[in-house]
Amino acid sequence: MKMKQGEFITLSASTMMLTALGIDIMLPAFGELRNDFDLDPHSTETAKIISFFFLGQVAQIVFGTLSDRFGRLPILRIGFPLYIIGGIGAAFAPNLSLMLIARFIAGVGASAVFMTTIAGIRDRFVGNKMAQIMSLVFTIFLFTPVIAPFLGSAILHLSSWKMVFLTPPLFALIVFLWSSRLEESLPTNKRMPLNFPSIRKSMGNVLRNRIFLRYTTITTLLFTALSSYVASSEHIIGGIYGKPSLFAWIFGGMGLLMALSTLANSYLSTKYGARRTIKSLLLLYTLVAVGLTIITVSFGDPPNMLLFFIAVTLMMAINLAVEPNSSALALEPLGQVAGTAASVYGTLFFSIGAALGSIVSNLMSNSVSPLVISYLVIGISGLLLALNDRRPNDVLHD
User: Fold this and answer.
1) Any idea what DSSP says for residue 238?
2) Mean pLDDT score of the chain, rounded to an integer?
3) Rounded distance between C-alpha atoms, residue 219 and residue 60, angstroms
4) Which of the four pLDDT bands, split at 50, 70 and 90, describes residue 253?
5) pLDDT computed for residue 146 by the predictor
6) Which of 118, 152, 329, 140 is nearest to 234 (CA)?
7) Exposed e or buried b for every residue in 45-77, given b needs 16+ CB within 10 A?
8) Which residue, among 148, 56, 37, 153, has the nearest Cα to 111 in the 3D structure?
9) Whose CA is closest to 352, among 226, 233, 206, 223?
10) d(CA 262, CA 250)
11) Is 164 buried (19+), middle (13-18) or exposed (0-12) by CB count in 10 A?
12) How far is CA 129 from the centre of its chain?
């Protein structure tokens, strides 16, 4: 790799940042958007703007197969234009239905960019080293939730929600130009033929691998928790707790702690290994979920706002610290079909997680109990899956 590691990490974080920016910056604009589209002020319909973007990630399954045949860069260069076109289409959509279609297209583009970034990292790094690199990428990437809500609010004061929606595709154009410095990571002699027997074999290798399925399920569960909160955060803060002016501060503060937690995970995964770290983090996640459930049952729904957001912030921080480890562990045994593995991984956790998260979000009209209960179930399930991996601790290597 001719590009220095620091630039590669920063570029990888910027490409992945498109997914977060395509969500977080527009959350403060939902109130104005409801007015323009004549929606009820407390409508949860705006959550679909997030959900449809996530559902576009199902295209990763196609892009992954193509990237194993043609390389990572051609797929990356398909993803950027789709993201940009979808983003512009959403900004100028005359109604919510057309906006959701445009958001799905943008999500498809983001899926190509996200998948090729993960596959490119896997091509270059392996095991605990990959977990460390992923943690550094996520640390930079997660500053987006810190900055984006404030940026969205600032743009709203100067312009309209349309300009807020146009910001992600404009940023994507800059990163697209920067990505021209990136080199292909998949050598020609390691590419897979594009025919049905080859595709079936690659898919079979991925879907029959128990390690892959175990850690992909953990990521899917945790992404359900993340997507359900992100999609409903504006409604929880502004509608259920009646504090819309605090949205940017709460969301940004949570993003800062999440970024710091992934940075800490880079150290922990290097010192203790990805598997030991993920078990400890999921145990802590479950304990916090149990505590929040007890508080909600004992003191009413919604619980005290400060206690609720302390608990949720801790769980979201742990959530994002776990993801680099689960990525590394899921993809570790599948280096020969990294594109297909990354695409199946991304498709499953994005599409299933977004669908389940959307269900949880739609249940929260006047109550946070659906979110609290889902976090408890997710914590227990994820912990049991991690604890049942009883392989020797030195399975991962650099």
Assistant:
1) I
2) 84
3) 16
4) confident
5) 65
6) 152
7) ebbbbbbbbbbbbbbbbbbbbbbbbbbbbbbbb
8) 56
9) 223
10) 19
11) buried
12) 21
10 Å CB burial of residue 137 (0-12, 13-18, 19+) is: buried
Under the phi-then-psi rule, with left for phi > 0, alpha for psi from -120 to 50, and beta for the rest, what region is 38?
left
Q: List pLDDT tens digits, range 316-341.
A: 888 878 887 887 788 777 766 767 78
Residues 6+ away with beta carbon under 8 Å from 280: 272
Residue among 309, 215, 328 nearest 270 (CA)? 328
- 313-333 in b/e form (b: 16+ CB < 10 A) is bbbbbbbbbbbbbbbbbbbbe
Max CA-CA distance within the chain? Answer: 62
Among the listed ranges 35-49, 173-187, 248-262, which one has the minimum average pLDDT value?
248-262
Question: Does pLDDT of 81 surpass 50?
Answer: yes
Identity at 225, one-letter amino acid code: A
Contact indicator for 308, 302 with CB cutoff of 8 Å: yes
Backbone φ/ψ region at 302: left (φ over 0), alpha (ψ -120 to 50), beta? beta
Amino acid letter for position 354: A
Task: Identify the pLDDT of residue 375.
Answer: 94
> Distances in Å between the alpha carbon of 147 and those of 51, 152, 354?
21, 9, 23
The span from the CA of 270 to the CA of 185, in Å, is: 24
Q: What is the pLDDT of residue 396?
A: 45
Q: Can you tell me whether residue 160 is helix, strand or coil?
A: coil
List pLDDT tens digits, range 225-249: 888 887 788 788 888 888 888 877 8
Q: In the chain, which residue ranges form alpha helices assigned H by DSSP?
A: 5-24, 30-36, 47-55, 60-70, 72-91, 96-124, 127-141, 144-158, 161-178, 196-207, 210-235, 247-272, 274-299, 305-331, 338-347, 353-362, 369-387
